[in-house]
Design goal:
Number of helices: 4
Helix content: 40-55%
Shape: flat
Oligomer: single chain
Number of strands: 2
Distance between the termini: 45 Å
Largest sheet: 2 strands, antiparallel
């Protein structure tokens, strides 16, 4: 059973310009009765869609002035991130070093020697 807030959140999905679009349902297929895996996939999709963030914001009323300030700050953050990514692609700044995570679980292969 899904909590009521989660069921409502599944029906909310960002549409045009980040506005919630009612009626679009997030669907996850359950394979081989593996509910845990389906929930994991659902949570990942909800995270990617920004539903958890939206639920947190909707817990309390946000004044229109606070909303404008928050949205302006988000726009600045997005612009800076896009500029940083562009500079990395063009080689103007070094990309962050990626650390390799050890693979675990089934199909991870033989352990390193």
């Amino acid at each position: 059973m899904m909590p009521a807030a989660l069921e409502r959140a599944v029906a909310l999905r960002p549409g045009i310009r980040g506005k919630p679009q009612i009626g679009t349902v997030l669907q996850v297929l359950v394979r081989d009765n593996n509910i845990e895996q389906a929930l994991k996939v659902l949570k990942k999709r909800m995270q990617r869609e920004g539903i958890f963030r939206e639920m947190k914001q909707r817990k309390a009323y946000e004044k229109p002035s606070e909303r404008r300030v928050r949205e302006a700050a988000e726009a600045v953050r997005r612009t800076r991130k896009a500029a940083r990514k562009k500079a990395q692609r063009e080689g103007l700044i070094a990309a962050p070093k990626r650390t390799l995570k050890p693979r675990t679980g089934p199909g991870a292969g033989a352990p390193p020697r």
